[in-house]
Amino acid sequence: MGDDVGVIPPVRFAAAVILVGLLVAAAPSGVTTSQGLLSRSDGGVLGVVVHREVRAFEAPGGGELFFTTARVRGTDLATGAEETVDVTFPGGFISESRGAHSSTAPPANATRVGRRVLMFHRRVEDIAEGFSGEVLVDGGGGLFSWFESRRGETIVQGRGPGSAIARNVRLADLRGDVRGALGRSGEDR
Length: 189
Fold this sequence. Notes:
Blueprint: H1 10-26, H2 35-39, E1 43-58, E2 64-76, E3 82-90, E4 92-93, E5 99-100, E6 116-128, E7 131-136, E8 143-148, E9 154-156, E10 169-170, H3 171-188
Parallel strand pairs: 3-7
Antiparallel strand pairs: 1-2, 1-6, 2-3, 4-5, 6-7, 6-8, 8-9, 9-10
């Protein structure tokens, strides 16, 4: 028995595995860390980027401010209604030499035409020079990709610990969480 120091008896090991399995199974199937993101959102659109445009505005102190607008055609995450939403975020390039990077914006390939996206957005008045519209919530933190599984289910891709959606989640599970959160946030406003 002296040589078995640090060895877990098979019964204890099996009990530990079962306990971990139960804890994982009891974890919520949808999003748990997204409540902050949802509380700052007016909505979410799941669809495909059908158009992208970068615009330049005169900055108050001189120079230019650049904003990218991605048009997403898809469905409202809470209601399931078809919609097209123009979502704007800072940065972008009009040409190779005219534009600006933004540390809060998603990379250009994340919003290219044809990309499958989930974007959380909110309305902002006067983004720049009287330009108003929907902005991407939390910069790149409000943008996710999705795909269809072999079973035909839509899966939103999680982006790891610390992200509003940390792990891959079925759209059906996410939709339930979003309906509840956006329904409550709509009443609070």
